[in-house]
Write a structure and sequence with these properties.
Length: about 300
Amino acid sequence: MKIGLYPGCSLEGSSREYLESLQAIAPVLGLELAEVPDWNCCGASAAHSLNHKLALALPARVLALAEQAGMDKLLVPCSACLNRLSTTRAELIKNEALRREIAEVIELSLTCRTRVTDVLSVLAKATANGFSEKIRQPFARRVACYYGCYLTRPVEGAACRRTEDPQEMDALMKLAGADPIPWAFKVECCGAGLSLSRTSSVAELAGRVVEDAALRGAEAIVVACPMCHTNLDLRRSNIEQNLGTRFAMPVLYVTQVLGLALGIDERALGLHRHEVPVRWEKKANHQDTQAPSEVK
C-alpha cells in the first residue's frame, strides 16, 4: 500500500524514534511511504491561538504540496499535526471563499482532494491480514494504551470511533501479543504543549496518567503522539519529584511495540533514545509487575 507521509517537525527532531520505528516496520507490513516534498511546520500546537489565517495557511500548504505530488491519502503520525491538518481541511472544504483566500496566501492551488489519515487506521489495515505469521517475538506484557487528547478530540472527525473509551490501539497491541489493561486515563490530557512553559502543570497532569497505569499493573505505556511521549517520558523526573514516587515503566510508541513483535532490531526502532530505559525484569506472572518505589 503506497501512501503519502507528513512527518512533521517532532518526528525529525525530538521524537525521531517514532519515525525510525515507522520506517522500520513499513516494509514488513507492505507499506510504501512517500514523504511530502518541501513540507513545512503545521503550526501545532499554538499557531491557532495566535493568528487564525496563519494557522490555516501552514497546514494548507502541506495539503497543497501533497496534492501536487499526486497523493490521494496522507499519513500524519503525529496526532497534534493530524489535528491541524484535518481540521484545516474540513474548514476549507466548508468555506470555498476562505479556501481561495488561503490558496492565494500560500501561492499554490488547493482543492483539499488529499485525505488525511492517522497512524492507527493505517496500521490496522496493514496488519489486517497475515500479521500473526510475521510475529517473531510476541510482546507479552501488560500495557496501558494512552490515546491522549488529539486522537479523540474534537469528536467530529476524531480518529477513534469510541472517543471516551477508544479501542484502536488496544486492538493493535493484542495483535502484537500484549495485554492492554482497562483503565480510566487513556484519553486524559498529559499537559500537551505546556511542557516548556508550565512544566509543573505537565508534571501534575502527566503524573496522574503514569501513576494510574502503574497502579493497574501496566509494564509499559503505549502512545501514538510525540507530545504525549515527551510529557510521559522526558518529563518523568518532574513527575517523580511531584509525586515523591519513582516509576520504572517505559513509554513506547505503538510502532515500536509492533516492531519488537516483528523481531526488528531495538536500535533500528530507536529504543535507545528514550529517557526512561526500555527494559524489564523477568517476572513469573503479571501479578509480580513492579510497583512504584519511593524516591530516595
